[in-house]
Design a protein that fits this description.
Pseudouridine synthase; 2 domains
Length: 227
């Protein structure tokens, strides 16, 4: 069984949970042990996030992971102004930030400052390796995490709804962009704090979440396709 499978990751699942679930399903269908089945994803989603995961099934496709992982991505983002989170999302410790209440116009103006090629420092709570260890493991252990800034490209930021303290916007971004960090940086530009309360990935390159299947769908393996 070889090909691509588009799944809609539910909240509270890790990307590995989805990979593992599909691996077991493929193994069962082929009468093999899961350890003999190759399944990989092309860009992780945080556990609290939902949306499109592009899974690669079989050795011929998992070898192409780098090709798919470099694709641009689109996200629907919900953020909360006036508070910060230690992890940048609902799973961290929430604290009040500056009580400045930016206007909708100020928010729109702030968005324009981030469109284009910019430098971004990935969050400490991420899977990036620092001295051979995952950054989030070091952060959870209370160790200092120093990550170098990297260049990313923001193709589009479009405000959808402004109802302080909640803001919704759409982001078209390059591979390697951390939305949690983008949200925090936008808030800093406005003189306050914020964290991401909800995140949904709607596209990866030409692949769209509208064509994704529930990972627990009984016919999930019938949706595998080749290109």
């Amino acid at each position: 069984m070889q090909g691509i499978l588009l799944v809609d990751k539910p909240a509270d699942w890790t990307s590995f949970d989805a990979v593992n679930y599909v691996r077991k399903a493929v193994a069962s269908a082929e009468g093999k042990k899961p350890k003999h089945i190759k399944v990989g994803h092309t860009g992780t989603l945080d556990p609290f996030a939902t949306g499109l995961l592009v899974l690669l099934i079989g050795k011929d496709y998992t070898r192409r992971a780098a090709e798919f992982s470099k694709l641009d991505k689109t996200y629907e983002v919900t953020m909360k102004l006036g508070e910060t989170s230690t992890t940048g999302d609902p799973e961290g410790e929430i604290s009040p930030a500056a009580d400045k209440k930016p206007s909708e116009t100020e928010f729109k103006n702030a968005l324009t400052q981030f469109v284009g090629t910019i430098e971004q420092i990935p969050p400490a709570y991420s899977a990036i390796k620092v001295n051979g260890q995952r950054a989030y493991k070091l952060a959870r252990a209370g160790q200092e995490v120093v990550i170098e800034p990297r260049k990313i490209t923001i193709n589009r930021l479009e405000l959808v709804e402004y109802a302080y303290p909640e803001v919704k916007f759409v982001a078209d971004v390059s591979s390697g962009t951390y939305i949690r960090t983008l949200v925090e940086d936008i808030a800093k530009q406005l003189g306050t704090g914020a964290y991401t309360t909800a995140l949904r990935r709607t596209s990866v390159g030409k692949f769209d979440s509208a064509n994704a299947v529930d990972v627990k769908d009984n016919n999930v393996l019938e949706r595998i396709f080749v290109i």
